[in-house]
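Students often ask why we bother encoding 3D structure as a string. The short answer is that it lets us treat folding as translation between two languages. Here is a chain of 87 residues written in the first language.
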Amino acid sequence: MDARFKIAHREAKIGVGLAIIHFVWWFGFAYGLGSQPVEEYTYILGFPAWFFYSCIVSFVLISITISFLAKFVLKEVPFDDEEETQL
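And here it is in the second language, the structure alphabet:
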């Protein structure tokens, strides 16, 4: 098997795992904290806590995680065939 496919499969698994973690985070805070009556909401920076944690905090954390992965974990793979690059 071409080494590029192994790298692509590994990085696809990382991407799917990150998407699942993001969804679970968002769903947990949105429906965990947001299922209370509105009178019982707590607010952070003017936003309901469920919205703050599910949308704002998760966006910041996922952005930082993606930046870290792109910088240190994911590899750049050439799309050219190896035979063409050797010519």
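Translate back mentally: DSSP finds three helices and two strands in the chain. Keep this in mind for the problem set.
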